[in-house]
Write the C-alpha cells for this entry.
Amino acid sequence: MKKTVIAALLSTFVAGSAMADDAGKFYLAIDYGSVSFSNGNPGGTEFASPSSLRFAGGYRLSPVVALEVGYVAMADSTLANPAASVTSANSAIQAAIVGTYAVSEAIDLFGKLGISTNTNKLTGTGTVAGLNSSNTSTDFMYGIGAQYNINPQWAIRGQYENLGKHTTSSNLNNAWKVGMTQSSLGVVRKL
C-alpha cells in the first residue's frame, strides 16, 4: 500500500511539473511572517509571537525538486510581570529539499523537508536579572506552501513551517524544549 501511494505521489509531481521547467535555475526569496512558540515557558505563559524575516536561496535540480537554504531573523519576544521580565531572541538557519507540484502554469504547491539550526538567547531583568544564556540546537523541519508565478522571473509565495524544537536552558533553572512554527508571505526572484 505504501509503495502504491509513493508511486502515485511521484507520478503526480512529474506530470504536474512538466508545465514549467525551471530545472538548473537559481532563485532568491524574502519572506515576512510570524513565529509561534509552544512550551516556551515552563511557568505556563507563552512568549508572544514575534515577527520574522527570512532570506533564502535555492537551486532547482529538476522541475519537481529544489534545494533551499535560508536564514530566519526573529524579533525579540518578552514575558513580563511587575517583578521581572525575560526576553527571548531567536534565529534559525535552514537547509531543505523542496518538492513542487505545478497545479497550473501560474500556481505551484510545494512541500519542504530538512533541518533547522535554531539559536535562542535569554536575558532577564528584575528578580531574574542573573538570567543570561545562549543555546543552539538542530532539529528536523518541514513545511507546506503555495506559490503564484506572476511571470517567468517573479513569484509570490505563502507557507507554513514547523521549525522543530530547540533546547532552552538558563543558568537559573533546568532545560526545556521549545517548539517553533512560522507562517509567512514572500517574494521569489527566479534568476
